[in-house]
Write a structure and sequence with these properties.
Blueprint: H1 14-25, H2 69-82, H3 86-102
């Protein structure tokens, strides 16, 4: 089936183009000073139960692999071979490693 070609463009009206350009050149009158905004209310916060010295444990951590690229590559290779999720594998590796460190 042949592809239909676009129809020819309608004739150009120079007066319409001039009117469009003139409207684009007009600038709106500057508005007055901005309307005052109502004061914002403070958000309610839950009281902290931990003392100032204690901090809540982080929900996530970043591993910087600088100098440990070989370990990173070993973890990635094991993940691919065993089809583990990276998160699950890293948690399990840290659990096993920490258990071994504590047994020393």
């Amino acid at each position: 089936m042949p592809i239909a070609r676009n129809k020819k463009n309608p004739p150009v009206d120079p007066d319409a183009i001039a009117a469009f350009g003139a409207a684009a050149e007009l600038r709106p009158e500057p508005a007055g000073p901005p309307a005052p905004t109502p004061p914002t209310r403070q958000r309610a916060t839950t009281p902290r139960t931990a003392s100032a010295d204690e901090e809540a444990p982080p929900a996530s951590s970043i591993v910087r692999w600088a100098g440990e690229e070989e370990l990173r590559d070993r973890i990635i290779a094991y993940r691919r071979a065993e089809r583990y999720k990276m998160q699950d594998l890293m948690i399990k590796a840290m659990q096993i490693g920490l258990d071994q460190l504590e047994q020393r």
